[in-house]
C-alpha cells in the first residue's frame, strides 16, 4: 500500500494510525500504568540508556500520552511535543528550559496573568529579570534587549485585548541575539496559526481551552524541535514531574477529533456576534483581530488563517450598570476560562473607568446569543 501524506488538520485528527497491536481498536487504548517491565535485565538497561524514547515509567513516556503528543506535534508541524498537567505547567517548563540564573527575558505586556507573574515575581529569585514590552512595536522590543537576553516570550494575540505580534520579526530579532522564542498559541489553536513555520522556537497551548473543548479537562503542551524538547524532557519534564494523566490524554484525544470542526464553527459564531456589537453606539472599541476594523487586521491575515471566538469590547457604560447587564444574560455564564461549548462573559474595570468586556462565544445558535445580548442591553437602557 502506498502511504499518502496529508497536511489536512481534519484528516490528522481523525485517524490514529497506530499499529496492529490493539485488535483494530479505532481509538488509542488507555495505558493506565505507572510501570512497564521487561523480560530481561539487559532489556531494562537498554531502555534506561535511551530513556527519552523508551516506555519505562509514566513520569516519562506513557503510550497513551505519547499518542497525543505525536498528534499535537503533527498538527503544529513540529518535531516533538510534551504534554503537561496544565497550561501553566507547560509554560513554566518551556520558560525554565531557556534561561539560567542571571539571564534576561523580553516578554509581551499583555500575556496571560500567571505567565506574567512567573517572570515578574518568581524568576527574580534566580536573578532573572524581565522587561515587558508592548509587542506591537518591534523597535521597543529591540531597545529592551540586553546582552544577556535569552528568551523572547510572546502571546499572539493576547487574551484580553487581542493584540498581535509580528511573529517573523520577533523570530528574526531572537535569532540575531541568540535568544529562544516561545509563543502561547492557545487562542488560535493549532488550527489557525502555525508559529513554528514563522520561525518561532516553541509553541505552548493551554489544552484546557480549545483542545479539550468541553470544559472538563486541564492540560498543556509544549511543541518544538526534538533536540530542545529532549533536553526539556530530561530536566523540567521529569524533574518537576507535572505530567498529564493517561486518562486525560485519552479525553484530550477525543477533544482533538472535533477541534477543526469546532474551530470553524466557533470562528463563524464569534464573528457574527462581534459584527452585531461593532454597530452598537455604546461600544467605543472592539478587540477582535478577525474584524476588518482591527488595527492589525492585515498582520492577522498574513500570519493566521482564522480566529478564535474569544474577544472583547470596551464601553463607557459604568461598571455598576455593566454588572446588571451581565447578570441579565441568560446564555453567557459568568466565568474566566474559555474554549468550551458554552458562552461566557468576564469584565474588568479600567482605571480610566472604561469597562473591558470579554466574551467567549460558544456553540449555541449565534442569533440566540445576539438576542440575549440585546435584551440585556435593553434592560439597562443602553
Ligand atoms: C488558561 C490559559 C493559560 C493557562 O492554562 P491552564 O491550563 O489553566 O494552566 C495559558 N494561556 C492562556 C492564554 C490561557 O487562556
UniProtKB/TrEMBL annotation:
Family annotation (CDD domains): CGS_like
Claim: Signal is one of the keywords in the record: no
First-level EC class: isomerase
Key words of the record: Isomerase, Pyridoxal phosphate
GO molecular function, one term: alanine racemase activity
InterPro entries: Cys/Met-Metab_PyrdxlP-dep_enz (IPR000277), PyrdxlP-dep_Trfase (IPR015424), PyrdxlP-dep_Trfase_major (IPR015421), PyrdxlP-dep_Trfase_small (IPR015422)
Pfam families: Cys_Met_Meta_PP (PF01053)
EC number annotated for this UniProt entry: 5.1.1.1
Cofactor (UniProt): pyridoxal 5'-phosphate
Keyword match Isomerase: yes
PANTHER family for this protein: CYSTATHIONINE GAMMA-LYASE, TRANS-SULFURATION ENZYME FAMILY MEMBER
Family the UniProt entry places it in: Belongs to the trans-sulfuration enzymes family.
Annotated protein name in UniProt: L-alanine/L-glutamate racemase
